[in-house]
Amino acid sequence: MMSMIKKLHKWLSLLVALQLFIWLGTGLFFNLMDHEKASGNQYRQSLQVAAIEQARLIEPSLVLASAQPVVSIRLISLLAEPYYLLTHQQGLYRHLKSEYSLVHAYTGARVRITELMAAEIAQASYSGAGQIISVVKLSPPYQDIPKEKNQVWQVNFADQINTSVYVDSQSGRIVSHSNDDKRFVDFFFILHFMDYGNTGSFNNIQVIVFGLLTMLFCLTGFIWTVDLARHGQFNFSVSRQKRQLILLNKSQHTIAKFEVSKRVNLLDALNQQDIALPSSCGGGGSCGQCKVKLKTSSKITSAEQAHFNNQQLKQGYRLACQHNAGEIEQLSLLNDVALAKKHLLELSHSEFISPFIKELRFKVVGGYRLRYKAGAHMRFFIPAANGVSIPQRLPEALKPHWQEIALLQYQHKACSRHYSLACGKGQVDGGTNELVFTIKIQNAANNSVLPGIGSSYLCNLTPGQTISAVGPFEAFYAQPASNKTMVLIGAGSGMAPLKAIIEEQLSAAQVSKCKLREIHFLYGARTRQDLLYQAHFLQLSQQYQQFYYYPVLSNPDPQWQADKGYVQALLATQLHTIFDVSHTEFYLCGPAAMMTTAMEILIENGVDASNIAFDKFS
């Protein structure tokens, strides 16, 4: 329940913040705008008032005697002539539905506001140099005068601001002058008052709905605050005291002691000691990766309840981001790889292996080896720098693929990004000194957003340049000591961890001389050029009888003879034909849409969730 409340609160915060931004922007505009132009009355002038000859006026009683029921009668002036305005139905305000008739005050003749008369009235109220170009009788609703509920004549003038004069079709009253300046201001009023139906009122359904959603936003925030307080996550101490923190490994042996500030978040405190726990949510508790083991008496937050079962919680499993260092005396790491220090990596090789994906090879500065399970990833620290949307040193053969990408130069702040290792040598011969990554250069959807900062920076490095990274982190790997058939499903740059797992399995079988279990690799790409390492996998399928490779293209050329379509569709057709789902493990990595569909297919076909592993890199 709390996870739902948090998610709802975050989405509501986006909605409320967006409308607040609109209010601030439009409010600033109203303060800076030219109020004379905003009125629409640049060319409006007062109408000439008729000189009344009292002796010629018809008695009002004679007019009333021959008319339908009248609410009120008054003498008005139109085009320098006197008229009796008879009100038969009166709205509370002039713009509300009303019914009038006109009688000439000298002759007693009934008068209707014709097209010609409306044009003359509009011309008399207009002081500009424009000529009348059209006269149109309209019925509500109106774009320029949304509140008006009576029929009007619209008289349009040919001037530089496209003036329109609106004349009441019954009374001849000048309802309004409007022009492009006023229409521009009206657009900001629509935004400011959320009057997206253009009713001319702030009392609309959008404001009511927004008010209810804002109340819900406050309510979810209050519930979240109460939940934080209930679990003791508020620390109002202003002290800068430090305390000693004891760090244990998973075997409960002390491996480090260091001082941390009591007010610092535990995840950040460990990061300050170069102990980088994996985390992709920025410490919000939603990814559940920064797992540690604390005393069983430690408080339990709603985020931890969502990521651990009751047995794990009783054993002390917690999330580092949910606790302050001041609460903790000692903690145990669930995986010794969390002790990984920062490494300085030097780029040794950079090569395009598809139009948008590069293979990057790094050497660990210092020459030492890193051990890791295939499927692991590393966290790169991207420094603040100037970026460019199109790769530097782009090969001539690939330039046609980038010609639709707009050249954009930009500056970006320091950040960190996670990338999976694409080499399966992490557990062979004591680890490896060469780290391989396949990184897709992420393009921006338009010029209003930046392209992929991390991928652009890394793929523009030149051999010899260095960068800091921490890891490897093992969150996605092959099940150890399993004899089940392996099915790996990937697409795009999701290739990296799957390639590493395949190579690790093949190398381990070769070294141990054990029988290799069946491995099936289904890989999807758009075109033949996007197939990563095709020759490598074809060679492996020839070398190892238990390894099967299934490339599939969604946009193949006419000469393509293998499978066509999407990799998840190939999985659906082959699932029961080739695999015994009760004795098969599935490993997925690729774009979110492919992963979601593939997992739905597996679950619908009876695959147990414990036999599905995935690396949600996107």
Describe the 3D structure.
The model has no long low-confidence stretch (mean pLDDT 87). The relative contact order is 0.07. It contains 15 helices and 27 strands. The protein is elongated. By secondary structure, it is α+β, with helices and mostly antiparallel strands. The chain has 5 domains: 2-35 and 200-230; 55-178, no CATH class; 242-338, Ubiquitin-like (UB roll); 340-473, Beta Barrel (Elongation Factor Tu (Ef-tu), domain 3); 485-615, Nucleotide-binding domain of ferredoxin-NADP reductase (FNR) module (Rossmann fold). Helix 1 packs across helix 6 and helix 14 packs parallel to helix 15 (592-604). It has a 6-stranded antiparallel β-sheet. The chain has a 6-stranded parallel β-sheet with strand order 25-24-23-22-26-27, with helices on both faces. Helices cover 28% and strands 26% of the residues. Helix 12 links the parallel strand 22 and strand 23 (519-525).
CATH architecture of the largest domain: Beta Barrel
Strand content: 25-35%
Based on CA inertia axes, which overall geometry fits?
elongated
Rounded Rg: 37 Å
What spatial order of strands do you see in the largest sheet? 19-16-21-14-15-20
Domain 2Fe-2S ferredoxin-type: 243-339
Domain FAD-binding FR-type: 340-479
Protein name: NADH:ubiquinone oxidoreductase, Na(+)-translocating, F subunit
GO molecular function: iron-sulfur cluster binding; oxidoreductase activity
